[in-house]
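Lab notebook, bench 4. Still working through the backlog of constructs that have no structural model yet. Next entry is a single chain of 168 residues. Request: give me the structure tokens for it.
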Amino acid sequence: MTISMYQASVPRFVNILGNLSNIMDKTQAHIDAKKIADATLTGYRLFPDMLPLTTQVQIACDAANGVVARLAGIDIPVHAGDDKTIADLKARIAKSIAFIQSVSAAQIDGTEDKAIVTKRGDKETHYVGMQFLLGHAIPNFYFHITTTYNILRHNGVEIGKRDFLGNP
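Model written out:
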């Protein structure tokens, strides 16, 4: 049995982003119960040179959007980076899920050898589809989801492994 590029990407991103949205619900409940400001958590970093929670969620969403769009050969959605609250982050996650679900298997399957070029500043990195998905995009996505989880767990939000994994 083989697994398609679509099956290795879209359902996985949707599942984990859905789990992240549920984690954000628990985060909001924690904020409400402890009577703390959203910014206490949304601006939190695990270490001074690391990005804050809001940016971790933004990057995770943008990473999932980016890989799906690049593989499908469509424009990557652009969202403002002005998320300040847990509700803002939940809205961003919902937009990402909606976008990712709008892309069909026919648009992604067969892209294993598709040339993919990413740019960061003036540096270009060249991949083929499978290498980009499995060697860069998925690990990057999970890195930022995991960092988000760790920030929240470190700050006392009552979440666990089952919240992260959900029901794949």
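Notes after review: Residues 14-162 form a domain with the Four Helix Bundle (Hemerythrin (Met), subunit A) fold (CATH 1.20.120.450). The CA atoms of residues 116 and 122 lie 16 Å apart. Flag for follow-up if needed.
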